[in-house]
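Why do we care about 3D structure at all? Because function follows from shape, and shape follows, mostly, from sequence. That is the central idea of this module. The next example makes it concrete: a single protein chain, its amino acid sequence, and then its structure expressed as tokens.
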Amino acid sequence: MKQTKLWMLAAILSIICGACITTCCTSSDDNPVVETQQPTIQRITERGKLLVGTTGDYRPLSYRETDGNYWGFGIEMAQKIAERIGVGIDFVQTSWPTLTADVLTEPQTFDLAIGGITITDTRKKTMLMSDGYLCNGKTILCRSSEVDRYQSLADLDKPEVRVMVNPGGLNEKFANENLPHATIIVYQKNEEIPNQVAEGNADVMITEITEAPWYVHNDPRLAAPLLNAPFTHGEIGVLMRKGQDDLLTLVNSVIAQMKTDGSLRQLHEKYGLVYGY
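And the structure:
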């Protein structure tokens, strides 16, 4: 008799716990894809802040002013994600050479990374990447007086052409793989490279179609002659460590909603970027 009662009690508790789990993880009508009680989002909610890793050197996607304030396309995307969760936001400095290590480090220093991060198969092997929210591709900046000199990769791949790149990112990787004969100059501060080109300390900067228009617009000494014919085609997304599937679902939900309601297009227009969705 006692064994029967214990078995019945266990069965009842199992049903109650199952119902509780379903209730906690079932999404609301207003937010149908977000499971707010899964581990990552629950931790962020309890902390009251979304911690966002960003380089702060990539106008107009992520830039850190001297007063410590951040602005840019990616920064506004991060703010939208924090708003969806219902928390504030703190930005954590990272860099292109250390980006992967910073995402994977223990203890974890930020929840996600954003701002000019290209979606690649290599990154997806060891980390999670969101859906794309910005079209991307490799292009160049050069002096406006030398536009006719650079019309193809072959024009760049010459010993007399000084190609400047920031260290540790995909720009350096692209230059090393595609310009074996050019003179590659690695310069530590990405945000200073356009001015280095304009001042004549380098001839060309390998950059992205997301970054080049901002510099051309703000510095008449610079041009992007291959802006409409990028060497590569890709997308920029949000990067995070594996095991954060609930956060990934939420981020993808924010991106999808912004594509649907037109706010993503408005953000493209605000920063002078081509809308490709």
